[in-house]
């Protein structure tokens, strides 16, 4: 039985770093001047911070965060508790944006009036490519259908000196790991799985576009200092167990809320045994437990990966920084909690359906399927995505395919493979991995997100209950194929591949056999893989790649057609206050949202991705898959003030538009962990666009709460979670004490006066996480409004 122990206040020991004898060949050495961290500067600032903190031992996460403080004295003054309490003003080293979120981020950045970005920034075209029938045709079709958006992004990149990775180059997180990530830096990305880069020992944090604009404009970026959870790894993975199984197991322990407001910092002898890309998989799915990010101490395998990807100068600089103690926790550093995991006891794990934290060991999965009464059938297997598309993943999968081919087997269900980058695709093709997979029935898709984010034109199983197995990271209802009845079970690429040959959910490749055409039994041997290619990586089609560190071309014209249905210039949101004081106007409750409400529920992806740059159009999907707690219906809201000819019920966006037309500001009442999932800031922009001024929750997911603050929506927490059920549609809420809070009065409390539709009146107490600066954003109407006011 796997032993996982949780304990508090434990101490960390820093690892010993030794030289690695690499067996791979780097294909070239890049100019790393723009990506090598300024270690001398960071270490110097950290030494100053140590003095402020009385030289107490620091975790690795603290070292990275504190070395990027804009003003250490301001952030760390007071001498009190920092983790979980203080707000840090930080200066990230880099920003990366994917094409769907970059549109809104750039529209906001353009309104700031700057001529170039303050930090190195990149755009990655990966979200808008739909999977239909294969890489070549899918890519061509998507480039044509999204030409307007790609042209906008490329012209903005040229104007502001941003590196532009064209469609076909690959998935943002794989490209960042291969090209930009460096041990010990702090970077931001406009995608919730940005922490993937943490596999190289840095802090990479997923944010909304407005947060990215902070860094791009040189404005200090604010983060509430996270707690730090130490995850102590001992033992060694063996057999079928992979790093994916480590994070699937941990998700089951922590749940989707267990990492909120926390950084997961792995340490111990088990870390050094993992490949760099394996650690990236673990960091990637830290987002599924709500973690701010994940990180690891610098290892020999990280050095080997840097060398293999042409970044030897970064490796040499990191070696020196590590020798000075910068890239691991101090001896005696204290964590807020420690989780013990023995990798030697870990077995393959399958998580789902409909939530990434429902973890079942492979040995028990067959009986779990039977207990639930599900059909013992698999309808498709999908591997790749940003989570699991490394060379190591693909060589392990290819080993299984070779075994199957030798036995005369082909997959029994559709088997789709998504390479993470053009570099991975080209290296797979050169080394025979692609042909090996295709020989057993695989279809290789474009180097893009594809089915993982709903960009999958699936023609079968429409409105039918079915099960798919994927190596993806997220499995909410309707996410992959638009069918709410599709159950997505998350697993390692090797488990997905083996089960694709059986077509059965209950098949256990460790113990079970398949029947060959000859009638003989066949059992897979544990798969073997290679973390780095012996002949080095090959770049593939370099036409997809940007010129490094491009100079801004201010004469470039950015064209947005007046009648465009894809792009729309943003109008600043007005302040909620005007001349009426600093309490919010009376707010009508639009609805009480029941249960899990992710950013997929608030702002669906899939076919809606084409409207990411057009706020008016994408707002038509506001909360369309959310459940109204009053009645239990999906996408139904009540309007008790309907005009003649209007119905009392309508879709949620339709009622929100009615409120906006009446100039009626409104609010939502929501359940626990509201806004879990992706970093999409549209989930905050859309309610704000329709007139939402406040959301009251049992609890919020971190990124979404910050996005609400950025767009001028007040997030309040119920002091008593039972008050959630006391408020309903059509009730009116008024703030009491908000003015005191905004004006900086100590110990100010915000209460809500609730006027029920029946006339009953009562007050409830709320909590908040608003900092001094965030209150300035709220007063101004949005963070961008405040930034503009400071620049003028």
From TrEMBL:
Catalytic activity, EC: 4.2.1.-
Major enzyme class: lyase
Cellular component terms (Gene Ontology): cytosol; mitochondrion
Annotated ranges, domain Aconitase A/isopropylmalate dehydratase small subunit swivel: 588-720
Sorted UniProt keywords: Iron, Iron-sulfur, Lyase, Metal-binding, Mitochondrion, Transit peptide
Molecular function terms, GO-annotated: 4 iron, 4 sulfur cluster binding; aconitate hydratase activity; metal ion binding
Domain Aconitase/3-isopropylmalate dehydratase large subunit alpha/beta/alpha: 62-503
Main location: mitochondrion
Cofactor note: Binds 1 [4Fe-4S] cluster per subunit.
Domain of life: Eukaryota
Pfam families: Aconitase, Aconitase_C
Listed cofactors: [4Fe-4S] cluster
GO BP term, example: tricarboxylic acid cycle
Cellular localization per UniProt: Mitochondrion
InterPro entries noted in UniProt: Acnase/IPM_dHydase_lsu_aba_1/3 (IPR015931), Acoase/IPM_deHydtase_lsu_aba (IPR001030), Aconitase/3IPM_dehydase_swvl (IPR015928), Aconitase/IPM_isomerase (IPR050926), Aconitase_4Fe-4S_BS (IPR018136), Aconitase_4Fe-4S_dom (IPR036008), Aconitase_dom2 (IPR015932), Aconitase_mito-like (IPR006248)
Family: Belongs to the aconitase/IPM isomerase family.
Matches recorded under PANTHER family: ACONITATE HYDRATASE B, HOMOCITRATE DEHYDRATASE, MITOCHONDRIAL
Protein name stated in the entry: Aconitate hydratase, mitochondrial
Protein's organism: Suillus discolor
């Amino acid at each position: 039985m796997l032993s996982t122990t949780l304990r508090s206040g434990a101490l960390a020991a820093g690892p010993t770093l030794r030289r690695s004898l690499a067996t791979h060949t780097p294909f070239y050495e890049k100019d790393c001047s723009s990506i090598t961290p300024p270690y001398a500067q960071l270490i110097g600032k950290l030494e100053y911070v140590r003095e402020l903190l009385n030289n107490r031992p620091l975790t690795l996460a603290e070292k990275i965060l504190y070395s990027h403080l804009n003003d250490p004295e301001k952030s760390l003054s007071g001498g009190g508790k920092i983790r979980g309490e203080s707000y840090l003003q930080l200066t990230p080293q880099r920003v990366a944006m994917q094409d769907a979120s970059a549109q809104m981020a750039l529209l906001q950045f353009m309104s700031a009036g700057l001529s170039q970005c303050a930090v190195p920034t990149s755009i990655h075209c990966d979200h808008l490519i739909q999977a239909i029938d294969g890489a070549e045709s899918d890519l061509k079709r998507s480039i044509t259908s999204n030409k307007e958006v790609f042209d906008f992004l490329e012209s903005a990149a040229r104007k502001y000196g941003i590196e532009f990775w064209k469609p076909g180059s690959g998935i943002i997180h794989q490209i960042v790991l291969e090209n930009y990530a460096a041990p010990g830096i702090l970077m931001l990305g406009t995608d919730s799985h940005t922490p993937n880069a943490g596999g190289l020992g840095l802090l990479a944090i997923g944010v909304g576009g407005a947060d990215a604009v902070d860094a791009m404009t040189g404005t200090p970026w604010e983060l509430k200092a996270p707690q730090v959870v130490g995850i102590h790894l001992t033992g060694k993975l063996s057999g079928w167990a992979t790093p994916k199984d480590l994070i699937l197991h941990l998700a089951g322990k922590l749940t989707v809320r267990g990492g909120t407001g926390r950084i997961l910092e792995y340490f111990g002898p088990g870390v050094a045994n993992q490949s760099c890309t394996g650690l990236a998989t673990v960091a990637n799915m830290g987002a599924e437990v709500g973690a701010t990010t994940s990180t690891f101490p610098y290892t020999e395998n990280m050095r080997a990966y840097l060398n293999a990807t042409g970044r030897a100068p970064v490796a040499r600089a990191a070696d020196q920084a590590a020798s000075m103690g910068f890239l691991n926790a101090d001896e005696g550093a204290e964590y807020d909690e420690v989780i013990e995991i023995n990798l030697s006891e870990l077995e393959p794990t399958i998580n789902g359906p409909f939530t990434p934290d429902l973890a079942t060991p492979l040995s028990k999965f067959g009986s779990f399927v039977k207990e639930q009464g599900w059909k013992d059938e698999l309808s498709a297997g999908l591997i790749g995505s940003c989570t699991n598309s490394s060379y190591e993943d693909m060589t392990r999968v290819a080993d299984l395919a070779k075994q199957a081919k030798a036995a005369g087997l082909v997959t029994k269900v559709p088997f789709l493979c998504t390479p993470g980058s053009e570099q991975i695709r080209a290296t797979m093709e050169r080394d025979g991995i692609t042909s090996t997979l295709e020989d057993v029935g695989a279809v290789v898709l474009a180097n893009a997100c594809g089915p993982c984010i709903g960009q999958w034109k699936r023609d079968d199983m429409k409105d039918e209950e079915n099960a798919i197995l994927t190596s993806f990271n997220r499995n909410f209802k309707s996410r992959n194929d638009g069918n709410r009845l599709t159950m997505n079970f998350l697993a390692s690429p090797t488990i997905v591949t083996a089960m694709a040959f059986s077509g059965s959910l209950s098949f256990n490749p460790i113990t079970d056999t398949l029947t060959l055409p000859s009638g003989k039994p066949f059992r897979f041997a544990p798969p073997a893989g290679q973390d780095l290619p012996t002949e080095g990586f090959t770049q593939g089609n370099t036409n997809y790649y940007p010129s490094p560190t491009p100079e801004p071309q201010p004469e470039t014209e950015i064209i947005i057609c007046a009648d465009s249905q894809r792009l729309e210039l943003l109008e600043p949101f007005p302040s909620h206050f005007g001349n009426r004081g600093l309490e919010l106007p009376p707010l009508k409750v639009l609805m009480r949202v029941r249960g899990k409400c992710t950013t997929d529920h608030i702002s669906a992806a899939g076919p809606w991705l084409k409207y990411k740059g057009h706020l008016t159009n994408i707002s038509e999907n506001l909360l369309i898959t959310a459940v109204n707690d009053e009645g239990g219906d999906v996408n139904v809201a009540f309007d008790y003030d309907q005009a003649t000819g209007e119905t009392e019920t309508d879709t949620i966006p339709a009622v929100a538009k009615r409120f906006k037309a009446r100039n009626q500001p409104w609010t939502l009442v929501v359940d626990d962990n509201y806004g879990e999932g992706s970093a999409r800031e549209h989930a905050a922009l859309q309610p704000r666009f329709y007139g939402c001024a406040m959301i009251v929750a049992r609890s919020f997911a971190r990124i979404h709460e910050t996005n609400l603050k950025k767009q001028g929506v007040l997030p309040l927490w119920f002091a008593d979670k039972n008050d959630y059920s006391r408020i309903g549609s059509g009730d009116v809420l008024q703030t009491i004490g908000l003015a005191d809070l905004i004006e900086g009065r100590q110990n100010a409390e915000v209460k809500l006066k609730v006027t029920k539709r029946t006339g009953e009146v009562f007050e409830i107490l709320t909590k908040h996480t608003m900092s001094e600066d965030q209150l300035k954003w709220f007063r101004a109407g949005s963070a961008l409004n405040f930034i503009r006011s400071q620049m003028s």
